[in-house]
Design brief:
Two copies of one chain form a homodimer. With about 475 residues, chain A is α/β, with parallel strands linked by helices. Chain A has twelve helices and 21 strands. In chain A, helix 3 packs across helix 12. The longest helix of chain A has about 30 residues.
């Protein structure tokens, strides 16, 4: 280990110069030049590592339209390095969030700047830092231990910040190429109390709009005694989705929620959940049903949601206007857990409404993503935990799932794999905001952590295979 | 009768010139000169009639504010004419709706113009036509039959188009002066099928806003599993106000709805209700609960409403935004029937919500007005019906109540009286719209009808008193 750390120190200034170079490219959606430069730079860097690089084209525009043409479709840079029967897939991305509002940056977003031991630039943490740290970690590994005894597959995409529209078809098209014995995803960071935190999944999402239409136009409200009201229909329909204790009562919905495993429960119970701080920040007196911190943490991580994002009907200004609105709609998002797919939710909603006579309530699907949830006992997860404990000197905080949603499923459970989110960030990283930054010490320790993980992964995976074979 | 009709014909051109003169004054809210001119003209015309005129000041501004000062408060012109133990109150107003949009008028709104037997001007029907027709009717009556054998009290206000903010305090202050044996209100007109239509009441109104507040700001919707949602609270609270058959289920609400009397039901059943036409105009396949025309008519006239005017919470634009809104509100109007006062409704709402644990739902009262409903067998109503039948040659259509709301209660039931809406309008009058007009023949026949009513009123009232004494 000391050896590894010495190699990193010896390469520190070159590694940092490479990172700054990578961060200069404005690889923002809609900027084909910046995206192309970043993709080319990654391909080149992977070749220099000794990787077998290929470009996976994302094909014709998924949604058609004016942007069209292959040239504007950011391709996936794929590379494989190492040899052996085992393999590991690494997912990161080279595109970054738009830097607006520019005036809030202390230094320009695409001119990396070091201050107080931090490196400021758009993409420093999300996700160029993660991407390059993994490449450099392999270089350090090779210098320390020789060739990787398994195949590490880099999958570096350029559309993450616009919702990864090609991830599902790419996963299907290149299933054999991508399928491995585990996945390391982007993300993971130090929390406010400097505890290293990793995530074994993300929630899915189903964003829908429910619409009810009445007459041809709004009417004088004097007619409310005889003219059916879309707003009342919507309220009546919605009210059947939840009880007054905030339990979701859509027929069959909760039946699709897998109970947490004993191992998941064990990890969730150890998650520090600063309930008092969250409630103070948000200005709420209590969590739903006055849940204590542990219960709230478990709900947040493991339970689906049925949320109203927006209600719209009729008059919305100050004062009084006596109108019977001709339309009413609600925008809703459901945060999904495994098995509860967007398709399942829409089917359940339709049947639930129809059974209650609400055939007039139209369901419009806006967005959908399947949840990802890995087995917390999987080798890739356990190797990460062991490596983090070794390098960071503390047990990492393990979330069986992130509370938010992401496109992890397509490349992980979608291909029958387990995966875990690890990354270079910290609580002050300003992700998606002005002055995005990483702490330089975090960056180099993350490389050290990754080397340790690469060292442990094959034996952990083999032990797991042997145990399975023996059982 | 022939004699009356001859007198009207003899005075036709002068009566018309007077009406045109009256219609020239731009007596619109916010125009003190125009309002003052109209008030002065009415006072003068009533003096010329032999009336004992007095001005009832509306006092200091009811709502305070920048408009302040007595000079800007349109006073009520009050006058009494005739002698006798019986009395009758006439309510009309000299203020008019703003004429905007001006460009849609074929001739200027305050330059009366005759075309095709119609007189076009703002206020022609609402309500200078009604006001002057009543003054001229008394003049004709006097010429035909001599002094009025009862006291007719003219109450001509100047704030009707801004919601009659001083009517309730004025009614209290001048109760003894105003209390009479019946009231004739403004309104009433020929319908599309040229049936003369009168109304024995109007609905009240209670306009409220219900608000639920959550945290200090909107949150990322990932937290929906642990953070209480104001939008869901509002939906759950609202859903208890109505069942899925559109019955109002607010505790105690329907208990305050008086059953219709046999006489009211009799009139309501004779009301022509063009249901098919209404449904086609509005683009709806059916009335609530597929009511037939007769049922719909009775509901529209006699039942209160609980209507959603507007729903507001969170995200209202195109597309998807995953947010947990921190506030939710609904604007509602209740159309009220007698006994179901705005105060009663707000009290019932509060208790209904509290009983179900919705103490967090705030009720903001925006507007309130008590319903008016007169006894359809009252002398003033029966005298109107008999006079209409005589002059118009047909049974009038009698609505026990208008479906809309108005400030009738203060001067009618509020002072223990019965009243009825009669007026000079017709279905093409364009009330509150550009090109407001009356048909000139309607105007002079309306004077004839009013004379006949004035002739019948004392005997009808005396017969009723005698019957009551005998019983």
């Amino acid at each position: 280990m000391d050896h590894v750390s010495e190699i990193i120190t010896a390469n520190r200034s070159r590694f940092l110069a490479e990172l700054e170079e990578f961060l200069c490219f404005p690889s923002v959606a809609g900027n084909p030049l910046g995206l192309g430069q970043a993709a080319g730079w990654v391909a080149n860097r992977l070749t220099a590592l000794g990787g077998r690089v290929r470009v996976l084209p994302t094909g014709t525009p998924a949604t058609g339209g004016a942007m069209g043409g292959l040239v504007e479709q950011p391709s996936v840079v794929f590379a494989e390095t190492g040899q052996g029967p085992l393999s590991l897939l690494s997912y990161t991305h080279y595109d970054v969030q738009p830097p607006d509002p520019l005036e809030l940056w202390d230094t320009p977003p695409f001119e990396p700047s070091q201050r107080d031991g931090k490196l400021y630039a758009r993409g420093a943490t999300d996700d160029k830092g993660d991407t390059l740290a993994r490449i450099q970690a392999v270089e350090v590994y090779k210098q320390a231990y020789g060739e990787l005894p398994f195949r590490l597959k880099f999958f570096v995409e350029g559309e993450e910040e616009v919702g990864s529209p090609h991830l599902v078809p790419l996963a299907e098209q290149y299933a054999d190429l991508l399928r491995s014995d585990g996945v390391i995803w982007e993300g993971g960071s130090f929390d406010e109390a400097e505890r290293y935190t990793v995530y074994c999944g993300v929630k899915g999402i189903c964003f829908v709009e429910l619409r009810v239409r009445g007459g041809a136009h709004d009417l004088h409200s004097a007619y409310a005694s005889i003219v059916p009201s879309p707003a009342w229909r919507l309220v009546q329909a919605l009210s059947t989705f939840k009880d007054t204790h905030d339990n979701i009562t859509i027929d069959g919905f909760m039946d699709l929620v897998r109970p947490s495993t004993p191992a998941e429960l064990d990890y969730m119970r150890r998650i520090p959940f600063p309930g008092a701080q969250m409630k103070a920040n948000w200005g709420i007196p209590a969590f739903i049903e006055d849940a204590d911190d542990r219960t709230a943490a478990i709900r947040f991580i493991s339970q689906p949601t049925c949320n109203i994002c927006g209600l719209v009907s009729g008059f919305s200004d100050e004062g009084a206007k006596t109108v019977l609105p001709s339309t009413a709609s609600v925008k809703m998002d459901f945060r999904l857990v495994p098995d509860l797919t967007p398709e399942a939710v829409i089917g359940l909603l339709r049947r639930h409404l129809d059974r209650r006579g609400f055939r007039d309530v139209e369901i419009v699907s806006w967005d959908g993503m399947v949840a990802a949830r890995s087995d917390v006992t999987a080798p890739v997860v356990q190797a990460v935990i062991a490596a983090a404990q070794r390098v960071y000197g503390q047990e990492p905080v393990v979330y069986p799932s992130h509370g938010g949603s992401g496109p992890m499923h397509a490349l992980v459970q979608g291909l029958g794999m387990d995966g875990i989110m690890v990354g270079v960030g910290y609580s002050g990283e300003h992700m998606h905001a002005p002055n995005e930054n990483i702490r330089l010490d975090d960056y180099f320790r993350h490389i050290e952590f990754l080397v340790e993980f690469l060292r442990r992964f094959p034996s952990t995976a083999r032990a797991s295979t042997d145990a399975a074979a023996a059982a």
